[in-house]
Amino acid sequence: MAYQHIVVPDDGEKITCLNDPACVPDHPIITFIEGDGIGHDIMTASKRIWDAAVEKAYGGKRKIAWMEIYAGEKAASIYDGDYMPQETFDALREFLVGIKGPLTTPVGGGFRSLNVTLRQVLDLYACIRPVKWYKGVPSPVREPENVDVVIFRENTEDVYAGIEYQAGTPENDRLAAFLRDELGATFFEGSGIGIKPISAFGTKRLMRFALRYAIERGRKSITIVHKGNIQKFTEGAFRNWCYEVAREEFPEQTITEDELWSDYDGQQPDGKILIKDRIADIIFQHMLLRPTEFDMLVAPNLNGDYLSDAIAAQVGGVGIAPGANIGDDVMLFEATHGTAPKYTNLDKVNPGSLLFSGVTMLEFLGWWEAAKLIIQSYERTLAQKVVTYDFARQMEGATQVKTSEFATAIINNMDA
Ligand code: NAP
Q1: What's the pTM?
Q2: How far apart are alpha carbons 256 and 245 in whole angstroms?
Q3: pLDDT digits (tens, 9 = 90+) for 148-193
Q4: Among 339, 389, 394, 395, which is best to mutate for testing ligand 1, by the most ligand atoms less than 8 A from CB?
Q5: How many Cβ atoms sit within 10 Å of the Cβ of residue 138?
Q6: Pick the catalytic residue: 160, 165, 343, 378?
Q7: Around 150, how many Cα atoms within 13 Å sit in the side-chain half-sphere?
Q8: Could you give the C-alpha distances from 33 to 144, 164, 244, in angstroms and in order?
Q9: Residues near ligand 1 (Cβ within 6 A)
């Protein structure tokens, strides 16, 4: 495909399919969106680290061919005010894998979140957040090493579907009248109204993906998180549909908590993934008090959103929590924090969230050695107490460095 502003690197090859390392050539073209605000600083630093790790892990045999694509303020400056050009979607569909920095979204008016747009247009239905503690990272809890969960959050439905009507508008008036007159609903006059759709289709494909991931990575359990005690036909249905997928499509690989006790006397048999469910509010408490009981969490969009940030805080916060948005056709890895505009171009912030999103990407590509090398040298760097400002304020005797210096320290530690 011919692009207007995107330059396709001539030293790379296309990744031909997802979820199969055999489809990843030695010089894969990977797209990146730099991001607004601190995006430039963290993307520049992270690319240096990813490239160094790939070079060292494979002795130069493998190399990523980076291809810049545009969204947000940088796109607007290049594409005559267009914040989300069509060719960004085209390139992601053609090259399948991308990684992005944060993008600005104005609160309350202006345009719709670019992040939500990307997820919905590309149907990136699974938001995956691996949350794990790395040695040396300052944490507010006593035993952060006990947290090691992968959260699968549904990414396209729920109250994020954008079906919302402002109070006082003709659309709101019509919907309110329908709800009251036809369905007998009661609610205060002048309410804003939002609709929360959750479907069998959207739920089942997420659970199917989570189950395949659990099987491939040898994970032990999946906990379905929901508020089905209150929202029976959305959150409750989510729970039921998740169990249905496990029961009907993965009967050999899964057992429920009831079966664990009725058939196995409470001892989880090898090779079986335990499927259980918990109400959304209690899971926050469980994750703080008994995190070792949880391995993978599957949640609808809004609860998954809250839960992801809360659990990330236990292992050091959004400054280092990685994320990925994945669909059947495209994988887009991303920093989970925002653009932190006050730090723009100060070469100051922690690149950890984007860096570890890239580590997750390398793992999905099957480049495990490079991923491992980054984790090891990151932990060595933290053990030396060489950190950016955010960790420095939580660590005694730390050496505070710039984003770029932190990247250099990690790269140097790859040789240790
Ligand atoms: P934010 O950009 O995440 O920043 C909030 C605070 O978090 C920062 O002031 C900083 O705290 C800390 N922080 C964030 N990233 C950090 C990093 N890499 N290293 C160290 N500390 C970091 O949240 P926001 O101010 O609410 O949002 C700003 C803009 O980002 C908004 O337009 C929002 O819509 C957008 N946003 C985008 C995404 C995305 O693209 N996925 C996600 C969330 C928000 P201290 O100043 O206390 O050190």
Answers
A1: 0.93
A2: 12
A3: 999 999 999 999 888 999 999 999 999 999 999 999 999 999 999 9
A4: 339
A5: 18
A6: 160
A7: 19
A8: 32, 29, 38
A9: 38, 42, 102-105, 115, 318-319, 334, 337-341, 349-350, 353, 390
